[in-house]
Amino acid sequence: MLDTTIINKLTDRVLNAQDHATTMTKLTDEYPSMSIEDSYAVQDELRRRWIARGDRCVGLKAGLTSKAKMLQMGVDEPSFGILMASFSRPENSAIDIKELVHPRVEAEIAFVTKAELKGDLTIEQVLVATDYIIPAVEVIDSRYEKFKFDLVSVIADNGSSSRYVTGGRPRDPRELDLRTIGVVIEKNGEIMALGASAAVLNHPANAVVMLVKHLASRGEVLPAGSYVMTGGITEAIPVSAGDCITARFQDMGSVSFRFV
Ligand code: 0L1
Ligand code: MG
Predict the structure, then answer these.
(1) Which domain holds residue 42?
(2) Does 11 sit in the ligand 1 pocket, CB within 6 Å?
(3) Percent above pLDDT 90 for the chain
(4) Is the CB of residue 228 below 6 angstroms from any atom belonging to ligand 1?
């Protein structure tokens, strides 16, 4: 495992790239022995620094949870990341593209929990502990050039997390078949991608199961009241200034916003 001085130095680098919308070379280019454990240590330090700035952690994201995303990014396992309150943008808002490097959008189902979750779980246990599910769009923005990275490097960049927009209608997860929710992403009125929610690990609650297992491996739990994004249902769509995005979720409403 890398020592604390190096973890701090890498955190400085990631934070600087995120704050100034600049790119960096893969962290593994300089530290080829860097492990996934080291990357989550960088995330821990990022969270510590965001909280020290007055930000609030609202939950966690699972990423790379669909075959389409794994293929698109050339990796074969999910990643997890931190969601802070400052990353959130309201529905119908304008997101400033100058604050981002090369953003892409992806439609996701978010879970809001009402009980603590820990250890090895079943989908049913996740659903019982879920207050509601709600449509969300994540704006991912890798700080690596051309969105090219390895799993270790992308986890240290907090899974490319940059912004997220929540909207549509909150639903009781047990009133819907969470494997067959159809999703369509439109950019400027044109359909760019479509899919069904089973694309996420056969059932989006499986992303929560895997997230909680990951937390358990680090001696952590998922607190009640957490907001969890379960990962893109389709590949991610690149966006530019002037683009209007609408993601339509079957039986759950839609989420719209634009880039300026
Ligand atoms: O939320 C995601 O699926 C993104 C995970 C990180 C990989 C990427 O930047 O696409
Ligand atoms: Mg995502």
Answers:
(1) 4-259
(2) no
(3) 93
(4) no
**Residue with structure tokens 């002037």?**
242
Q: What is the pLDDT of residue 73?
A: 77
Report the domain count for the chain. Answer: 1
Query: CB–CB of 195/234 below 8 Å?
Result: yes
Alpha-carbon distance of 253 to 260, in angstroms, equals 24
Residue indicated by tokens 């079943």 = 122
Which CATH number covers residue 169? 3.90.850.10
Sequence-separated (6 or more) residues with CB below 8 Å from residue 80: 40, 60, 61, 62, 63, 155, 159, 211, 214
Q: Average pLDDT for residues 166-192, to the nearest whole number?
A: 98
Residue from 72, 140, 153, 155 whose mutation best tests the ligand 1 pocket (most atoms within 8 A of CB): 140
pLDDT single digits (tens) 199-219: 999 999 999 999 999 999 999
Residue with CA nearest ligand 1 atom 1: 63
Ligand 1 midpoint to CA 26 (Å): 15
The reply to whether ligand 1 has any atom less than 6 angstroms from the CB of 160 is: yes
pLDDT at 71: 81
What are 229-251's pLDDT values in tens digits?
999 999 999 999 999 999 999 99
